[in-house]
Amino acid sequence: MFRQVLLTELLKLRRSQITWISWLAISIMPLVCGLFMWIVREPERAAQLGLLGQKAQFTGATADWPGYFAMLLQTVGIGGMILVSVIAAYVYGREYADGTAKNLFALPVQRHWFAVAKLIVVLIWFGSLIVSLLVEGFIVGALLKLPGFSVALAANAIGDILLSALVAWLLVSVVAWIAALGRGYLAPLGFTIFMLVLGMVVGATGWGKWFPWSIVPLFAGVAGPRVETLAPGSLAVLALAFVAGVIAVICQMRYADNTQ
Amino acid sequence: MPADIVISARGLAKHYGPVRAVDGIDLDVHRGEVYGFLGRNGSGKTTTIRLLLGLIRPTDGEVTVLGARIKPGVQSVFARVGYLVETATSYPNLTVRENLDIQRRLTGAPPRAIDETIILLRLDRYADRRAGQLSLGNKQRLALARALLNQPEALILDEPVNGLDPAGIVEIRKLLRRLADERGVTVFLSSHILSEIAQLADRIGIIHEGLIVEDLSREDLHERSRRCLIVGVSDARRAAALLDRQLGITGAEHTPEGVLHVFEGRERAAEIARLLVTSGLDVTQLCLAEEDLEDYFMRLTGGAA
Q1: What is the CATH number of the domain that holds B197?
Q2: Range of the domain at B67
Q3: Do B172 and B235 fall within a single domain?
Q4: Do B89 and A103 lie within an 8 Å CB cutoff?
Q5: B289 and B173, same domain (yes or no)
Q6: pLDDT tens per residue across span B236-247
Q7: For A241-251, how does the pLDDT look when each residue is reduced to its tens digit (9 = 90+)?
Q8: Partner-chain contact B106 A258, CB within 8 Å
Q9: Which of A21, A46, A118, B29 makes an SS bond possible with A39, Cβ 3.0 to 4.6 Å?
Q10: What is the Cβ-side half-sphere exposure of residue B215, based on CA atoms within 13 angstroms?
Q11: pLDDT digits (tens, 9 = 90+) for B142-194
Q12: A98 touches chain B (CB under 8 A)
């Protein structure tokens, strides 16, 4: 039965507008990073064109593959985290906002399968978006003819971006719970923005590695100096947040009143 | 519990703080029966339906559907149940066929059930149209199609004819009646439309302020309905006084339109007519009428539906 639930969830996602919106959003990221690289490499021409020459200089970025990969990682660290949360808010929240949750809850399917299938669908779609970002990122980097490429560097960057995306996905179980609890999109979106800001603030203190929403920004190098490897404590906190979110969303769907 | 009882509730209650939405109701619906659940807005109909489907948890009491006690984690029984709760909702970006395909996959119905149900609900012209682009009536048809797709043994429908045009209402009424009569499907349907319930239901439960105040068969309704002699007369007030004084018939009510309603002694129609005519009054109408469900309901709940 889980296979059928998964197929129906994939069909719903395939037909929804969030797929194209999220793909468009992720497609812009390498283009922006590429533009930034070009500005850093050719600040005079960029300034002549009225682009952000001065600001780009201040970032300390270098116009090469290591600098470009670092920028992509930062983009995924913040943009990816927002995007995956928006996707999760949509996938879970729409059932309540559209009034279709009630159509799912009196069927010969255990309700927890819906919670799990949606989580997997978010993973599949977000994973596809990250792969798309990587492919596009390499194309943009190649077109810019950036120096300093090596296979080892690329493999390392791919690993970091995938890990960063995976960690961002781990946090969506909590977003899913908030969507089920708040019965719509607004609560999870508000929660995401709040946690992102809080994550940046906590990340700037010494406690960031213990706070789930600081871990991705720290790993991506957005909230202070980059933490290149995730400490076992951070991994444990992430695992705990994920499991707590999954249990909470399952309990919400299984036991809470649905008064739609 | 007798084997032919398909839906049963015992002491079923749902309280939201001080609000007693449903306040301890008992009901039994038998196999092949159409049970009309009638109540005014806010009387507890939809809350009861949600309780029957396990969408909300009771504060007290229990529900059994097709022999299974409804509680969290009990889902397999819903393979044999079709339902519609309140507004008809579906995935707006998916076509009619895709919406039904989702239902088919989740209920385990065979693939052919989609086309059969589309034809049954006359949705064939709209099969490949997105649900979000359907009219209100066709959205309702789609919701009913979803409820019927798995050929359920029990149908639990909340206001099933909402949004349908008069022809659609008759069509769905006939369909539900046919399902009950020919396939033994048990139908529990709620409505605030009295005529709908009166024409379709074998048995009627009237809910008022969270309590079932009446549970009666069509025959019971006939027996309990007040009957009266309606007399159209030129001076209703004088006529009422004459009946009281000369025939001992008391309690006759006269309307502002000059019509007299005679409850006690209504079988003495010939005597009444003779008296009124010989007293110089013009009698324009004389007929025996029975209180219908609407009158009965209003009398019971003390107001308009």
Answers
A1: 3.40.50.300
A2: 5-217
A3: no
A4: yes
A5: no
A6: 889 989 988 988
A7: 999 999 999 99
A8: no
A9: A46
A10: 9
A11: 999 999 999 999 999 999 988 888 899 989 999 999 999 999 999 999 987 77
A12: yes
The pair of structure tokens assigned to B234 is: 């030129």
Q: List C-alpha distances in Å: A84 to A18, A208, B9, B129.
A: 11, 21, 44, 30
Name the minimum distance, in Å, from the CA of A9 to any CA of chain B.
9
With an 8 Å Cβ cutoff, are B102 and A98 in contact?
no
3-class DSSP state for residue B99?
helix
Closest by Cβ to A16, choosing from B86, B93, B102: B93
Helix ranges restricted to H, chain A: 2-15, 17-41, 43-48, 53-58, 65-75, 81-97, 101-104, 111-144, 151-170, 172-182, 186-204, 212-220, 232-255
Question: pLDDT tens for residues A33-85?
Answer: 999 888 888 877 777 777 665 555 546 678 899 999 999 998 998 899 999 99
Pick out chain B residues at pLDDT < 70. Answer: 1-2, 222, 225, 291-292, 302-305
Report which residue type is found at B295.
Answer: D
Closest CA to B63 of B74, B76, B54: B54
Considering only the beta carbons, identify the residue of B83, B101, B108 that sits closest to A106: B83
DSSP B95: B
Give chain A's end-to-end CA distance (angstroms, integer).
25
Answer yes or no: do B200 and B230 share one domain: no
Taking the Cβ of residue A15 and every Cβ of chain B, the question of whether any pair is shorter than 8 Å is answered with yes
Q: Which of B173, B194, B217 is the last residue of a domain?
A: B217
Q: How far is B180 from chain A (nearest CA, A)?
A: 22
What's the pLDDT score for residue A54?
54
When scoring A8, A16, A114, A253 by the number of chain B Cβ atoms within 10 A, the one with the most, hence best to mutate, is: A8
User: Tokens standing for A166?
Assistant: 């995976």
Q: Which of B217, B252, B270 is the last residue of a domain?
A: B217
Q: Would you say how long chain B is, in residues? A: 305
Closest residue to A8, CB basis, from B55, B92, B106: B106
